[in-house]
Design goal:
The complex is a heterodimer of chains A (about 575) and B (about 375).
Chain A: H1 2-14, H2 17-21, E1 25-28, E2 31-32, H3 33-48, H4 65-91, H5 103-110, H6 115-138, H7 141-159, H8 161-171, H9 174-180, E3 187-188, H10 189-205, H11 209-219, H12 222-246, H13 249-274, H14 283-297, H15 310-332, H16 337-356, H17 361-364, E4 376-378, E5 382-384, H18 389-411, H19 414-424, H20 426-431, H21 436-462, H22 472-485, H23 490-504, H24 520-534, H25 543-549, H26 551-561, H27 575-579
Parallel strand pairs in A: 1-3
Antiparallel strand pairs in A: 1-2, 4-5
Helix pairs in contact in A: 1-3, 1-4, 3-4, 3-6, 4-5, 4-6, 7-10, 12-18, 13-18, 13-21, 13-22, 13-23, 14-15, 14-16, 14-21, 15-21, 18-21, 19-21, 22-23, 22-24
Chain B: H1 14-42, H2 47-52, H3 61-92, H4 99-120, H5 122-125, H6 127-154, H7 163-184, E1 189-190, H8 196-199, H9 209-231, H10 233-243, H11 245-250, H12 255-281, E2 283-284, H13 290-302, H14 308-330, H15 342-356, H16 368-371
Antiparallel strand pairs in B: 1-2
Helix pairs in contact in B: 3-9, 3-10, 3-12, 3-13, 3-14, 4-6, 4-7, 4-12, 4-13, 6-12, 9-10, 9-12, 10-12, 13-14, 13-15, 14-15
Classes of the chains: A mainly alpha (about 575), B mainly alpha (about 375).
């Protein structure tokens, strides 16, 4: 494991990530983001190597000092990769293919000292981090939670720096943030220590409170539960409405971008999460929405320019995109899942190529796109344009609320249950009398319409549409967002967009960590693999989906506990498990 | 899976009518385009040709031959890549979306090695030797990439629902592409200059040397692969695992090792294709693998996925269709700027084949659990 980590370390170092991210300070003057990415891995392997696979019948042994030693060795091995790299950096020149093979990297690795220093120090650092990981294993659950909270809070505060500063300015709390953050970015180290202590204490004191509160809410019945839910939703809505008033332009821009992706992700969630259709060409609907909004509202549209008001255009856009959804959906809907994925990808690419082509440039302007799209007027009250991100955010928020309401109602409707039945087993669903073709087609159309909202807002926000904005990678990023958050779960999808788009940034939009822009796609790819391997149900899973994905494990657990016929019947896999009942 | 044939007797739904309409429309466009093309070939002034596209000039024989040749060349490469898709699909039953990226890794490896050789002066002095050398290096690197990919990303997922490994492979593809960006930089990179006999046209059939080379090498690799799969013991094991992995395991075949071999072999073919791509176009960028990858997948489907000869034939037909199709079907109908629509045509072929004949031209060889 340590040696795999050492390869990964070298890869990270050569990807220029440390050098690029070195400018972003986390804790001034001790730690920069660049060094942080090199520290995480030894720590992780150190922690991970103490992992025990719990097996029935095999006694689990209590973690002891062995964990620390093992952690140290693994971490040192991981750090050793960097030591080796430092030595190689001085003796060979591979700048030709590897663009980041530079003295700057060596300098970073050696902290400005000689090469041998780098070689030694990384062994020590790696070992230290690995040992720390091992120690974390040794701690009880209580102190482990405290430590993890401390680290997360400090990192979170540092990462959210621009957001916090922006908000504090709006609220008039500047003295506080001045004390917290250093001038050149990053948290001052005394405040970092203070934060760590406070959050650690809070974690120890508040241990379990949150969970208790949650179980209490979920135990509520009927009307009371509805009340609690309504209260929560109203509170969130109030925060989201009030917050932008105090935030600056940058924060609002960020919020608007996140909102656009929430909208897209909710649409894809209906298709992928609820109906289980893997649509890789989702960007097509985004593109069709944007382009039709542009053609309908802009005076500069090449062929026809009806110059409709935005809201009227939106109705037409919805109809057009719905029809396109039908048109794309109908031929592919009977295909097997994996063929369908590739074919939708093909459709997504065909649509972009058509917008780009000379053939249709008389309609859509080819590679020049359509520019000077007017602002979106809402009943003559306000104009929403990209120059005022706050209004864009409110518009996006309104549509997000609509989309959330629609998907929430749909999930609990007859149609939603039909979707989930199709997702779980198409043959059985068909046998139950569900018209699978129509149901799946409807999912496609609903997803398309939700995507078109986002497209229409995007056109008004940016003020121009180009084929280059609708690359396939947009689809993939939305897919990562949906999968990361939790397929089929509205809250999960929203959280996924907020975390990924907000922090790392969208395909073209910068996030809070703007320094990551070069690496975000790489991270998205790695994240997708890791999520599929470790947690296919997502960050905030939907209960039903988890059951589906972990069917075997759950059946096994139930069997081990001797309770095969669970009350809800969701996890017994029929014949095999009932056969072992005495 | 999609089976439209048994539905014939059933009452038609709206979707069925729509599909029939689409099929008829597609066939009409193709037929009309072909007729117009023929009419324009005979005489550009006849009324039908004038009605379809007044500006059409038709194609000369040499132009037509050139199109076919470049189509066949591209198709040979698609075929080589398609073999990897087809073999992996045969044994594991999922689409390895990242296979196109393995091809890109091959082209990149070739670029790095050939540039190093050119620096050392060997590229000019002993071109054939260095070509063989970069092919060997690229095959090794690509096989290794494919094997690592299998070990890290796909093996833990064996037996999970079909879409899960597909999504993972999308992640792998994304990762490899962007790893190339961060390691090697985002700019397009060039191969060193090739000798004249590669660049100029030969008297024989009037084809450039590079294209002859591509077709020859592709044919030789195909024959080697065919021999390996049909005649050696490992090949037999592969076919057995493709037929039914569980039974194969019972017969004493190491399934894991066989799957690793399949990945290595597919990677080797992709690496070969990567070098050929580099020799033909002499430039490579991180997105090089995406479109050829998708087209090769289409080729595998067209040829009937899981069918080796079919993959090669499918590659050739996709290659010819995308190079000839726009000029023979779309141009005569008055579509302007047709060469931009090449990729769209390739995708349309994929969609068309899946609509009309989802099992491919040569019939599909499916793993056991799909056949039931």
């Amino acid at each position: 494991m340590g040696s795999i980590a050492s390869f990964a370390q070298v890869f990270i170092a050569l990807s220029n990530m440390p050098v690029r991210l070195d400018e972003r300070l986390i804790i001034k003057p001790v730690l920069s983001l660049g060094y942080l990415v090199l520290l995480i891995l030894p720590f992780a392997v150190g922690y991970r190597q103490g992992h025990q696979i719990k097996r029935e019948g095999v006694p689990t042994y209590a973690p002891g000092p062995n964990e620390v030693v093992g952690g140290f060795l693994c971490g040192a091995l991981a750090g050793g990769g960097l030591s080796l790299l430092a030595v190689l950096l001085t003796h060979f020149d591979l700048r030709e293919p590897l663009v980041n093979w530079s003295p700057i990297l060596l300098d970073l690795l050696a902290f400005g000292n000689a090469t041998w220093f780098a070689a030694v120090i990384w062994l020590v650092i790696g070992g230290g981090m690995g040992a720390a990981g091992g120690v974390l294993r040794l701690l009880g659950p209580r102190s482990r939670r405290a430590v993890v909270t401390m680290v997360l809070v400090v990192l979170g505060v540092a990462v959210l720096e621009s957001l916090v500063v922006d908000l504090a300015e709006g609220l008039g709390l500047e003295p506080l943030t001045d004390r917290l953050y250093a001038r050149r970015g990053g948290v001052n180290w005394p405040s970092a220590v203070g934060l760590a202590v406070v959050s650690g204490l809070l974690a120890v004191v508040g241990r379990g409170r949150f969970r208790q509160a949650r179980t209490r809410v979920s135990e509520l019945e009927g009307a009371k539960r509805t009340q609690a839910n309504v209260g929560l939703i109203l509170l969130t809505a109030a925060v989201l409405i009030v917050l932008p008033l105090f935030a600056g332009k940058l924060t609002n821009e960020l919020l608007a971008n996140v909102g656009l992706f929430v909208l897209l992700a909710l649409g894809l969630n209906v298709v992928v999460g609820l109906a289980g259709i893997l649509d890789l060409g989702y960007v097509a609907f985004f593109a069709v929405g944007s382009y039709s909004a542009a053609v309908l509202t802009a005076a500069t549209s090449p062929k026809i320019a009806p110059e409709m008001p935005w809201l009227v255009a939106l109705i037409v856009v919805v109809i057009i995109t719905g029809l396109v959804g039908l048109f794309i959906g109908a031929p592919v809907i009977r295909m097997r899942g994996d063929y369908l994925a590739i074919v939708t990808l093909g459709f997504g690419e065909i649509i972009r190529l058509l917008f780009l082509s000379d053939w249709l440039s008389g309609w859509f302007g080819g590679s020049q796109g359509i520019t000077n799209i007017p602002a979106a007027g809402i009943f003559g009250l306000t104009d929403v344009a990209g120059t005022d991100p706050r209004r864009v955010f409110y518009l996006v928020l309104a549509f997000c609320a609509l989309a959330i309401y629609v998907s929430w109602r749909l999930e609990r409707s007859r149609l939603g249950r039909a979707w989930m039945a199709v997702r779980e087993d198409e043959t059985v669903a068909e046998a139950m009398g569900i018209n699978t073709v129509n149901v799946k087609l409807l999912a496609f159309v609903v997803g398309a319409v939700l995507g078109s909202f986002s497209g229409a807002i995007f056109a008004a926000k940016v003020g121009s549409v180009f084929p280059a904005s609708f690359l396939i990678l947009v689809s993939i990023v939305i897919l990562v967002v949906v999968i990361f958050g939790g397929m089929g779960n509205i809250i999960g999808v929203i959280a996924g967009s907020a975390v990924l788009i907000g922090v790392l940034g969208g395909p073209k939009q910068p996030g809070l960590l703007a320094e990551f822009s070069e690496f975000k796609l790489l991270i998205y790819g790695a994240l997708l693999i890791w999520m599929m391997l470790a947690r296919p149900e997502g960050l905030i899973p939907s209960v039903r989906r988890t059951r589906e994905l972990r069917q075997h494990e759950m059946a096994q657990d139930a069997w081990l506990r001797g309770e095969v016929d669970d009350d809800d019947g969701g996890n017994g896999t029929g014949g095999a498990s009932s056969a072992v009942l005495p | 899976m999609t089976r439209w044939a048994p539905r014939r007797g059933k009452p038609h739904t709206g979707v069925d009518w729509f599909l029939t309409f689409m099929r008829v429309a597609a066939l009409t466009v193709i037929g009309l385009g072909l007729l117009a093309f023929i009419a324009q070939e005979i005489n550009t002034d006849n009324p039908f040709a004038q009605w379809a596209n007044p500006d059409a000039t038709g194609l000369t024989g040499a132009q037509f031959q050139g199109l076919i040749i470049s189509g066949v060349t591209q198709g040979a490469m698609y075929g080589l890549i398609a073999l990897g898709y087809s073999m992996v699909y045969g044994v594991l039953g999922f689409i390895n979306f990242a296979h196109g990226e393995v091809f890109m890794v091959g082209a990149m490896t070739g670029m790095i090695t050939s540039n190093k050789l050119a620096d050392a002066g060997l590229w000019e002095s002993n071109f054939v030797g260095s070509l063989v050398f970069i092919m060997v290096v690229s095959i090794l690197v690509c096989s290794l990439t494919a094997v690592i990919m299998e070990r890290v990303a796909y093996r833990p997922l064996r037996g999970s629902p079909r879409l899960i490994p597909l999504i993972t492979s999308i992640g792998v593809s994304f990762f490899l592409q962007n790893a190339s960006v961060v390691l090697l930089g985002p700019a397009a990179k060039a191969y060193p200059d090739v000798p004249d006999w590669i660049r100029t046209k030969h008297t024989f059939l009037d084809i450039e040397g590079a294209k002859i080379l591509v077709i020859l090498v592709a044919a030789v690799s195909m024959i080697c692969l065919y021999y390996f799969v049909e005649r050696t013991k490992s090949g037999k094991a592969m076919r057995a695992v493709a037929e039914d992995a569980e039974i194969a395991a019972l017969m004493g075949i190491d399934v894991n090792r066989t799957i690793v071999k399949v990945f290595a072999l597919g990677g080797a073919m992709a690496g070969m294709a990567g070098i050929l791509w580099g020799i033909l176009f002499r430039s490579v960028i991180h997105t090089t693998g995406f479109l050829p990858g998708i087209k090769a997948f289409s080729a595998a489907v067209v040829g009937g996925i899981g069918h080796l000869g079919g993959a090669m034939a499918g590659g050739l037909s996709i290659g010819v269709a995308e190079s000839v199709g726009p000029l023979v079907i779309l141009e005569p109908l008055g579509v302007s700027g047709v060469s931009q629509l090449r990729d769209a045509v390739a995708f349309a072929v994929l969609i068309g084949v899946l609509l009309l004949r989802p099992s491919g031209l040569f019939g599909e060889r499916l793993p056991a659990e799909d056949r039931t």
